[in-house]
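Hi everyone, sorry if this is the wrong subforum. Our group has a chain we'd like a structural model of before ordering constructs, and none of us has done structure prediction before. Sequence below.
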Amino acid sequence: MLLAAILCALSPGQRPRRMARLAETCALLTLLITVGALVGLVKWGSGGSALLGIAGIGLSARLDAVSASMLLLVGFVGWIVVRYTRTYLDGEARQGAFTGWLCALLAAVLLLVEAGNLVQLVAAWIAISFALRRLLLFYPERVAAQRAARKKRVFATLGAMALILAACLLAWGYGSTDIAAINAAARAGTAPGTVIPAAAALALAALLKSAQFPTHGWLTEVMEAPTPVSALLHAGVINAGGFLLIRFADVLLLAPGVLAALAMLGGFTAIFGALVMLTQPAVKTSLAFSTVAQMGFMTLQCGLALFPLALLHIVAHSLYKAHSFLASGGAVEQVSATRRPGPVAVPDGAAVGRAFLLALAIYAVIGTGFALLFGLRHESPQALALGAILIFGVAYLLAQGLADAAPRVLTRKTMLYSVAAAIGYFTLQVAASWATTSTLPATPAPDRLAWTLMTLAVLSFGSVAVAQALLPLWSGHPAARGLRVHLSNGLYVNAVLERLLGGWSVRKTP
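Answer:
Right subforum, don't worry. Here is the predicted structure as tokens:
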């Protein structure tokens, strides 16, 4: 990918036919190499390469379940985006330059997810931000693009400083820059005095990278860049924060207070992003706020020490969200060509209550079945709480199916979807836990703080789900209409941040 980036930089103009095809070929070759890495992992197990450098500074690769999953994800989504770009940007004056920076960004992400030492990790982290800024300013005349790039530069600089601090503290405390050695020492219980500030710095870098509240504004303004940029964000760019938390899971377990902060901020960001998403009229902006919510939920998972499920969430969300962005134009055409139907049935309060009780009952029955089949008697309470939160999503469908005016076909479909969602959750949870057994630490038993956070999360997400199911009943109320206006503006958080960064300053003219 670096070779493709250099060659595309030599032909930065319009319709670089050979360079565009070369970039696509290199992306396909990269995908094949990542598949080979997965095969090697299955055949020979986890391992790392020797350091190509001196004094702990240089290049090294680490191959395990985490890096193999991310490599395959980045390789696949990257190939699709590069292939899509060749047609999407056909005729643009700077198509070659865009393709070159796209390949450079992919190369930096690949270096990040396979990094075996702290120096390579930090260098790749900074390179990702630099390449992304060049892509965000592909249309430099767009004011919104300038705002997004300015915010991203501020948060990227702060995140890089936090990661550099964390790397220095980890190297000083554990006497090594090798990531595998640091995690092994942390898992063995070695906790130097620098481990808590290092964990806090890692968490700060991850939060800034993943557009968590209140630093999410740049992500919603990325829509001013070409669509491939929005899709490529989900190939390890916006997910880099989650990857960082998962990679240093053993270190974070030594700092329960940091995990609690991640859970609280991630849960709030998830609820905030989901509510704002429902009020956005533009499809790409709605998808962007959906990504904010999903990254918040992923941070919540890491805060609850559910690292295998967080990795699974990264992969699943990246695949469907990258597809959603690439297909956003077609979705708009489909909606414009057909009349959008209204709700089939509007549930009342009794139907909503029955739906949530039925959804929880389905979840309990299927969970018990999996416990009998796979011996999941020691399933962590954190995973069960997360499953309860996820099942609230299908309770909304059940509420429509249980409404008095709902046809039987809709009722049967919603029941089927609910059962399938519960089975899918437990199946993927078992698969993710099994695949990462030797790489990621087990979820510890919750203490009083963890129980409080789990209870708060379940109640918060449950309340929002109930409010969403009852939305048709109170959407016409003046208070609801006013709340919708405020939510559509993101509660003005981004506007306040823009003012603080000087984005609204107007130069006086004589």
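For your construct planning: Residues 505-510 have pLDDT under 50 and may be disordered. The two ends are 51 Å apart (CA to CA).
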